[in-house]
Amino acid sequence: MNTVRFAVIGCGRIAGNHLQALREIPRAELVAICDLNAERAIPYSARFRVPWYASYHAMLTREHVDAVCILTPSGMHPAHAIDVMRRYRKHVVIEKPMAMRLTDLDALLKVADEAGVRIFPVYQNRYNRPVRAVREALLDGRLGRAVLGTVRLRWCRPQRYYDRDPWRGTWSHDGGALTNQGIHYLDLLLYLMGDVEEVYTIAATQLVKVEVEDTAVAALRFASGALGSIEVTTAARPDDFEASISVLAEQGAAIVAGLTANRLFTWTLDPAACEGLSEDVPNAYGNGHRPLLADVVAELLDGTPHPISFGEGARAIRLLNALYRSAEDGVLVRTKDRPASRRLGRQDPAIDGLYLTKPDEPQRGLNA
Predict the structure, then answer these.
(1) C-alpha span between 228 and 77 (Å, rounded)
(2) pLDDT tens digits for range 119-176
(3) Of 256, 259, 253, 237, the residue nearest 245 (C-alpha)
(4) Furthest-apart CA atoms within the chain: distance in Å
(5) For 44-101, how does the pLDDT look when each residue is reduced to its tens digit (9 = 90+)?
(6) How far apart are CA 270 and CA 136, in angstroms?
(7) Could you tell me if 55 and 329 are in contact, meaning their C-beta atoms sit under 8 angstroms apart?
(8) Measuring CA to CA, how many Å separate 18 from each of 15, 130, 287, 310, 349?
(9) 367 — pLDDT class (breaks 50, 70, 90)
């Protein structure tokens, strides 16, 4: 195999980043796209000159595909990925969150092992220039021992945002501000500060009518002994104000912020270097999808291990469950006990039915 042939399932907001990246990466080929909604699929089909399908079963039966990007509603990621791996034995690239239930993490890994395929979680912000700079300074000791890590996400998601799709704002298929908006920053906190031992969370639904939280705060203790705090809200009004992650250490401090953790605002090791260690981004999804997908190609063709393994991707899901379980029980929880949320990812067959397709279903709107 000299080229990795990709297909994409789901043509929502994030699809453009995947499709554009796949067109630019050497040794990657975009083969086909799939979405139940023709209005979403047709523009991408025309722009990238690839066939679109209403059913991924038809797409994966008719097209020669090596890897599939799963970009469907959050709560459908495990079901779609497991079916693609088990039925068609394709590698999968899974957008955030890779899963919501801890049991889904176990199921994903089991099926991948049985099918002999790889799972690639998407945490593209790890590739951001300022994030890499802070990570390297922590690893090589220039910042010294970290003592405090903080995430602050103050974004605006009004009622109309949640009303756009039936899965939004649900425990079964979306999760709240921590899951949907905060997950990338939870991952970066773990990436920079290391594993968490204890969490205590308070969460509330403040300004919208949904099942899930739009505001949460948490206190953390890391395995290193450092402390941490998380503040995530989609109840900022009238617009997005801040998305930042900061690290305070014995030899200095770093604050990464910007639209998508793309700018270094504070860098006490070398304040003049902030601009050079920052980068411009076209949108809130940043520039990271291209290098992330290029690393997928490198692993599949060259055997070079992807820097974001399945285990790395699972860390944020485990922290997310610990945060929710603490809020649900009103107690401090220890992550070593593998606490699982009682609400996140709970079953809702009615919403599942909107997004599940069977191999023998008629191809609604097929244009291939």
Answers:
(1) 29
(2) 999 999 999 999 999 999 999 999 999 999 999 999 999 999 999 999 999 999 999 9
(3) 256
(4) 63
(5) 999 999 999 999 999 999 999 999 999 999 999 999 999 999 999 999 999 999 999 9
(6) 14
(7) no
(8) 5, 22, 11, 19, 29
(9) very low
Report d(CA 118, CA 89) in Å as an integer: 10
H-helix segments, 140-223: 159-163, 177-180, 183-193
- Domains of the chain, first to last: 4-124+349-355 (3.40.50.720), 126-282+309-337 (3.30.360.10)
Supply the pTM of this predicted model. 0.95
Q: What is the DSSP letter of 278?
A: -
- Measure the CA–CA gap between 106 and 298, rounded to whole angstroms: 26
Measured CA to CA, the distance from residue 209 to residue 142 in angstroms comes to 47
Dihedral sign, Cα of residue 168, residue 174, residue 179, residue 182: negative
Coil, helix or strand for 265? strand
Q: Is the pLDDT of residue 365 over 60?
A: no
CA distance 41 to 39: 6
Other C-beta atoms within 10 Å of 89: how many?
Answer: 12
User: How far is the CA of 94 from the CAs of 81, 120, 160, in angstroms?
Assistant: 7, 6, 26
143 contacts 193 by C-beta, under 8 angstroms = no
User: In this structure, are residues 187 and 193 in contact, taking their beta carbons and an 8 Å threshold?
Assistant: no
Residue 368's pLDDT band (cuts 50, 70, 90): very low
Q: Residue 29 burial by CB count (10 A; 0-12/13-18/19+): exposed, middle or buried?
A: middle
Identity (one letter) of the amino acid at 194?
Answer: G
Q: Could you tell me which residues are beta bridge partners of residue 254?
A: 247, 267
- What size, in residues, is the chain? 368
Helix (H, G, I), strand (E, B) or coil at 225: coil
